[in-house]
Structures are given as structure tokens and as C-alpha cells.
């Protein structure tokens, strides 16, 4: 770690000096060129439909890809050799749903996953200026402001501190917007709530770093700034930073994926995704919030009566049934396992109830271990379907006593124009022919 000069807020890196003749290419230019060439070659090698998806158009669904035909008797055919990196079976094709170019998102396929941990390559992403290409040997985290010793930490510095590994979800505060404002029967769990993922994060507690720099007693807020082209910046209360905030450099046992913050990101367990600043490069300590555009023009909840709710950080208790759900079909009557996910940014999910008759009666679901704070919890409920049309719904409870609300309750408080923090009860209508469609109104 490097001590900052008094009065200096930023640390910059300069290219090595020296003569640059016409045949000398800088490393930065070489990297950019290599990425461009590789990307162009990759796009040219793709089928036309896939190229369209890579450049922001419609993307083919995994089910639309060519079918895989294996040998009739695998015991009679020698398998594939060892490899440096393993891949999924060609019969398993979970995929995110990318929308947009450098500004956009891609949703986690909740209906295709088991358990609670989201594979790193399927963790949802929300981008405002694309995914930056960051050299981990050059990236630094500066902490300055109301501290006794402004310091600059390299990635190697951060890895010298005691580490923690904790499982937490991150949910975009806009998750569920389409299902709230413009629901359709043909929406999948991925389209309803796919901007939420659950990961084992590894890194150093932010409290450890703040003790290292000597945070001052009058400090009340931090400004966390990212290293992408939009310089994402959010104001964070010191209480949260000293509680459970993590400067993470790994997820699910490996380095962070680039779209999720490589080489380091801020993780604020249970708080809206935008505050979990990716590619974090600077933390400034002060006495008041900075009122950045990301917490005034954006990520503020408009409310009825010309009011607005600011700094609504925690994500409220929520649940969604992931099976049965559109586009699945129940081929016959009998016992079926209803399965879904529940979570709360305020603590531990203590219970989930399921209804199979549109809310007339509710029964407790089984919560699968482990039930961790501020993490996804898997719930199940056995249901004997008799062939009649049914509406399945779930509602979650957490250890603060909060109960997931219905649409009418949420709309009364927030109004139809609200743009963030959507957690109403949703459901699925199972028709008499076994087909399943999304049911928004409850």
C-alpha cells in the first residue's frame, strides 16, 4: 500500500517514458487492438442470428439451438480427454438474456438453476458504460478524506489482509419492474425476477481497511466510486461500511468475472444492487451524502403525492416460484414439487407460505438448509394436482416481522409510477391442460 501525498485525492499511473518510434506500439494500444481483432473474428464465425444477439439485437433462446445427439450406448465409445477448463454438458444450456449494448442488463435464468448458488457465468449483470478491461496489476483502491492516513491499496495489498467468505444475494433495485408495470402471461421467472443472483463472495471487510486508514469520529458517509467509463458513484452510510461491507475480489471460489466487478468490487449485503459498486477504485470519507446523479436522477423512488423516497437501501422480503412456471407444462395429474426462491435484504427468511388456490388458503413451505442472512433461500411444497385450473403463489416472511405484500398493498403505498423496489406477491396459473402462464394480479 502507498501513502497518499497530503492534499492529493487521486493516484494516477503513467506509461514508462522513452522514445516511441513508428514501429513501437504501446501495450495499451496492443491490448485494444487484440480485443478488437478477436471480437471481430468471433463475430464473423458466429451464425447470423447469434451475431445479431451479440450486437444488441434478438438473441436465440437455448431451446432454439441445434439439438445434441449422443451415442446410443456411451459405454461403447471412448469419452473426451482431460481439459484445462471444464464445460457444461451440451444437454444443459442455461443462459442469461442480454439486452442493450454498453448500457443494459442480462438476467439470471432462475428457472434453470438448482439450490441457491448462482454460477458465476450466469450471475446477472447491469451495465451503464460497458464492461471495462482492467489490468489487475495496475488497479488500485484509494481511501481518503476524513481519515488519518490516506492510503492506496493494490490488489496484492488487499489479499494480505484477513479474508472472509460469505454468501449473499445482490439484486438490482429495478428487478421486477416489467412484471409490475407491464405484466404478460408469457413471462418466465427469468424475465420476472432475473436481476437477482446469489454468490459466495470472498474479500476483506471494508471495516478492516477503514481501521487501517484511521477513519475519524465525525465521519458519517462514504463515496464509493467505480472504475468504469461512467464513474458510477454512490453515497454509503458509515454504519453499513463498518457492519458487513466487503471489498470482494473473488466469487464462488474464483476471481470475479469482469461483468461483476473484476478485479475488486464493493459488496453491501442486502442493499440495492447499484450501491454494490463494481470495479471500485476510490472511497472518500465525509460527513454528508454526495447526492450524485445515481442517487438523485436515478435510484430514487417516486411516490404518490409528488414525493420521493431517497436512500432506500435494503431490499425487502420477496419470493418467487420457479417451478412450475412459464413455459413449463405439467404432463399429468398427481404429486408435483413446487419450488422457488425467497430472500430479504434485512435479515433471514424465517418462513414462506404457498397457496395453490389463488390465495384462499396458505400453507407453510419447507425451507431447505442453509437459511443464511441476506441470501437466497430455497423453498419447496408438495402439491397434488387434480387437473383443475389453479393459481400458485408464494409469500415470504423475515426475522424483522416483515411480510411480502400483495399488489394492491404495494401500489397503494408506492403508486403505479414507482421505478424501484418491486416485491409484490406474484403467481402462476396452471390451466386444466397443464400449461402454465404468469399471473400478475393477486
Any key phrases for this structure?
29% strand; Sulfite Oxidase, Chain A, domain 2; 442 residues; alpha+beta; Immunoglobulin-like; 6-stranded mixed sheet; 5-stranded antiparallel sheet; globular; single chain; disordered N terminus
Q: In words, what does this structure look like?
A:
It is a single chain. Mean pLDDT is 88; it is low at 2-60. The protein is built from eight helices and 25 strands. The strands form six sheets. It has a six-stranded mixed beta sheet. Strands 7, 8, 11, 12 and 13 form a five-stranded antiparallel beta sheet that branches. It has a five-stranded antiparallel beta sheet with strand order 20-19-23-24-25, with no helix packed on it. The chain is globular and about 70 Å long. The chain is an alpha+beta fold. The longest helix has 19 residues, at 27-45. Among the domains are: 140-308, Oxidoreductase, molybdopterin-binding domain (Sulfite Oxidase, Chain A, domain 2), CATH 3.90.420; 318-439, Immunoglobulin-like (Sandwich).
List the helices and strands and how they pair.
Layout: E1 2-3, H1 27-45, H2 48-54, E2 99-100, E3 104-106, E4 125-127, E5 140-145, E6 151-154, H3 155-158, E7 164-171, H4 177-181, H5 189-193, E8 196-205, H6 206-213, E9 221-226, E10 233-237, H7 238-241, E11 246-251, E12 254-255, E13 265-267, E14 280-286, E15 301-303, E16 307-309, E17 318-323, E18 334-343, E19 349-355, E20 363-364, E21 366-367, E22 377-385, E23 390-398, H8 407-414, E24 427-430, E25 436-439
Parallel strand pairs: 5-14
Antiparallel strand pairs: 1-6, 2-3, 3-4, 5-6, 7-8, 8-11, 9-10, 9-14, 11-12, 11-13, 15-16, 17-18, 18-22, 19-20, 19-23, 21-22, 23-24, 24-25
